[in-house]
Amino acid sequence: MAQFHVFEAPVSGFNFENSTRNVLLENALGEGKSKAPKPVKTGTTIAGVVFKDGVVLGADTRATSSEVVADKMCAKIHYIAPNIYCCGAGTAADTFKTTELLSSNLTIFSLNSERNPRVTMAAHILQDMLFRYRGMIGANLILGGVDFTGNHLYTVGPFGSMDKRPYLAMGSGDLAAMGILEDRFKANMELDEAKALVRDAIHSGIMSDLGSGHNIDLCVITRQGVDYIRPYQESEYKDTRKEKYKYKQGTTPVLTENVVRLELELLHETVQSHSATCRQEVFLNTDEVTRPALSLDRNLLFFIHYSSF
Questions:
Q1: Which of 101, 153, 93 is nearest to 126 (CA)?
Q2: 79 and 163 co-located in one domain
Q3: Is 249 within the bounds of a domain?
Q4: CA Rg value for the chain
């Protein structure tokens, strides 16, 4: 007689089974030498809103490496097609190369068909590409654009998930940004109102997240064209150095010094004079590699033949 499996109803309250499992795995593998991977933080705050005549995209400009600010003017709104732009959060190299690849594919499509691509086409290409890599490409994207079917805003996650909404936010500051969007969004907004909403959403993410900061960039996409405003709002937290940190010579002691002399053999030397120009060529015993040396005078140029002995 066939046996039927009856699923038990979940018990109410908190469940710590996964935490217990992780501790057991760490202790079982190498007696504590194996540790659970740390969560990866995307950094960045990006957002987008659909308004009456098009789409407004926004992003901050801070790029971080761990706890270090690597770039204060990082461009996170990428060109895809004349009618489509994309905001990227996550690994900078992944977002740049992913959007470049998408832009190349859509450019070839436009050349063959003599028309602008649809936004849904770009979103599905991104979805198929990211899904194949199972999240190994750290690209969290917000895709916005305008085509003959209307105004569209998509989000594509690193695992290939896709969603279409009238307003979106992604990145490590997305919770604060989404709170602003949910509170103030309304259908058929005017352009100025949509720009102010996206600006305030990005600013909220900047104030709530250390991985977001500095300026705010906006990109307005309509049927009439694209207005890429960089920067739309500069950071209000600017300061100047009060002193010049220039140390005197000898402040830092030299502990060790090692000088290696390069022994070269002079084989042939010629000097040619052309009007007021002096040209000197020095040939040294080398392995057939000729390189120009530094120019010591405006009309004096050395060509040196190098070799390893």
A1: 101
A2: yes
A3: no
A4: 29
Tokens of 278: 């002096």
Catalytic residue at 286?
A: no
Tens-place pLDDT, residues 65-117: 888 999 999 999 999 999 999 999 999 999 999 999 999 999 999 999 999 99
Tell me which H or E stretch contains 219.
Answer: strand 216-222
Chosen domain end from 214, 233, 252: 233
The one catalytic residue among 42, 44, 91, 155: 44
Same-domain check for residues 193 and 290? no
pTM strictly above 0.85:
no
Distance CA 223, CA 116 (A): 12
Cβ–Cβ < 8 Å for 84, 223: no
Model pLDDT, residue 36: 65
Contact 139, 119 (CB under 8 A): no
Q: Quick one: which of 77, 40, 70 has its CA closest to 213?
A: 70
For tokens 């000097």, name the residue: 271
**Which residue range(s) make up the domain with 289?**
266-306
Cβ 59 vs Cβ 76: under 8 Å: yes
Give me the CATH number covering residue 157. 3.60.20.10
| Total tally of structural domains belonging to the chain | 2
Q: Is residue 254 part of a domain?
A: no
